[in-house]
Q: What sequence folds into this?
């Protein structure tokens, strides 16, 4: 009988379930998109029930496919959009407010007031994070203070918090398990990454009750069983991990200094720093890469808020393109960006700038500027932002970066990947299996049940698809980089006016 693992990949715009075989190859994918809500400027929400229903649908699709293949599902792994925040009634299982998405900036004003120098230093030391609306903590606080029902349920000890993984585990187990893993916990701004537990002082400071928080487990662990009423047969859940850490595992970034960049709605770069926590002098995040057998491996992370979302903007808002794949053809026709730079600060600038107030801006427009130049500038911005982060990582870690492993939607754009290699002046490598996020969740679940024996076995399975070496003349690259820094500096000046 064929054996499979199902990975649930619950992302920002869609939910997928993927069947993986013993070789780590995706055999079947079921995917379903869900609605994005923008109730106010800077607010981004999802309907948790819609997340749950899409998850249930794609999981059942994968289970049914397994039956057709006469196979057996050994276990389920879950990976998810990380900082997105859900609170629900633990008696009814119903959410009390929409999920507040990681991109949401509604708590920016509170963060600004909360961010005294001393407090930020303490928060950074304990959690590895910066005080920012990006993380779950202030989103929880907002719901508790602004949703009348939340206040009532707190008094009754009847409310639970979770990132999306926790919510899905709760739903899949019919309320039997309220748990998360160390990587997701480390993105809340409430978790002490040294002590590996919820930090009582931070909780008290934000007036968040500890009893609403989930139990924190290893990434490869026992997270309960799916209820038979949902999946007909009960399946164990053995792997849980935040999406970016999942991609690092899927890319076999198990060695100190190994790193990956995932191009999705945003882009996220993670560097494995082993058992050492490196606190950044360049506003990068110190986070948990994974926790296995009670042992924590740390990482440096840089977050780019707008990557694929910039291409979506080209398609949906200004209608330069009708399909994301068109960008490569458009860009190929141009010899250069013609001095046009797009700084896609649509939801503020992420690492290494962390500028909440900045807005998306285009520089260098002339009468000769066309749609193609704007499209090219939006792609180049992904590479330039990646460069900003990698330079910061080199400075913080003292590690000379020779290779960047890439995955996600934009990694199929070979023009962009070549531009990325040129800008970084280092090799950019794309793996054969680009479903690295789901694959990471599958690996973790598989390790728990002996489907794979060790990290070393997983490393040996990783295969290269294509390698992009730097080829562009250095003087041309440096001129482009100079233009990018000029644009960012101009934006920061404009923000301060």
A:
């Amino acid at each position: 009988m064929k054996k499979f693992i199902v990975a649930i990949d619950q992302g920002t715009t869609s939910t997928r379930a993927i069947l993986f075989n013993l070789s780590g190859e995706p055999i079947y994918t079921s995917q379903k998109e869900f609605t994005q809500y923008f109730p106010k400027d800077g607010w981004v929400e999802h309907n948790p029930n819609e997340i749950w229903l899409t998850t249930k649908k794609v999981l059942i699709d994968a289970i049914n496919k397994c039956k057709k293949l006469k196979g057996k599902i050994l276990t389920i792994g879950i990976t998810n959009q990380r900082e997105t925040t859900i609170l629900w009634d633990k008696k009814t299982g119903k959410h009390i407010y929409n999920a507040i998405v990681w991109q949401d900036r509604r708590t920016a004003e509170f963060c600004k007031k909360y961010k005294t120098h001393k407090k930020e230093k303490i928060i950074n030391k304990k959690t590895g994070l910066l005080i920012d609306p990006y993380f779950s903590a202030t989103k929880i606080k907002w719901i508790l203070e602004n949703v009348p029902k939340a206040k009532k349920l707190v008094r009754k000890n009847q409310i639970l918090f979770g990132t999306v993984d926790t919510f899905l585990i709760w739903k899949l187990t019919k309320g039997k398990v309220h748990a998360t893993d160390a990587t997701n916990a480390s993105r809340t701004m409430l978790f002490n990454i040294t002590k590996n537990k919820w930090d009582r002082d931070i909780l008290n400071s934000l007036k968040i009750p500890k009893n609403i928080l989930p139990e924190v487990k290893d990434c490869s662990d026992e997270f309960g069983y799916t209820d038979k009423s949902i999946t007909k047969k009960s399946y164990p859940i053995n792997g849980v991990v935040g999406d970016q850490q999942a991609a690092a595992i899927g890319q076999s970034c198990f060695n100190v200094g190994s790193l990956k960049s995932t191009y999705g709605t945003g882009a996220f770069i993670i560097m494995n720093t082993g058992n050492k926590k490196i606190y950044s002098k360049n506003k990068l995040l110190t986070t948990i890469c994974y926790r296995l057998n009670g042992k924590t491996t740390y990482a440096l992370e840089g977050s780019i808020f707008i990557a694929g979302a910039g291409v979506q903007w080209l398609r949906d808002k200004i209608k330069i393109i009708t399909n994301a794949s068109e960008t490569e053809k458009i860009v190929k026709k141009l010899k250069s960006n013609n001095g046009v730079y797009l700084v896609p600060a649509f939801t503020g600038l992420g690492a290494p700038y962390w500028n909440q107030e900045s807005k998306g801006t285009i520089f260098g427009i002339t009468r000769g500027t066309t749609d193609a130049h704007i499209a090219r500038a939006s792609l180049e911005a992904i590479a330039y932002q990646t460069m900003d982060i990698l330079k910061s990582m080199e400075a913080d870690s003292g590690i000379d970066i020779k290779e960047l492993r890439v995955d996600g939607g934009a990694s199929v754009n070979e023009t962009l990947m070549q531009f990325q290699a040129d800008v970084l002046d280092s090799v950019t490598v794309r793996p054969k299996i680009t479903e690295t996020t789901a694959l990471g969740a599958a690996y973790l679940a598989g390790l728990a049940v002996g489907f794979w024996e060790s990290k070393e076995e997983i490393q040996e399975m990783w295969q290269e698809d294509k390698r992009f070496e730097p080829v562009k003349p250095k003087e041309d690259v440096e001129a482009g980089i100079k233009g990018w820094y000029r644009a960012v500096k101009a934006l920061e000046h404009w923000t301060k006016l």
Notes: The domain at 2-243 is CATH 3.30.420.40 (Nucleotidyltransferase; domain 5). The first strand starts at residue 2 and ends at 10.
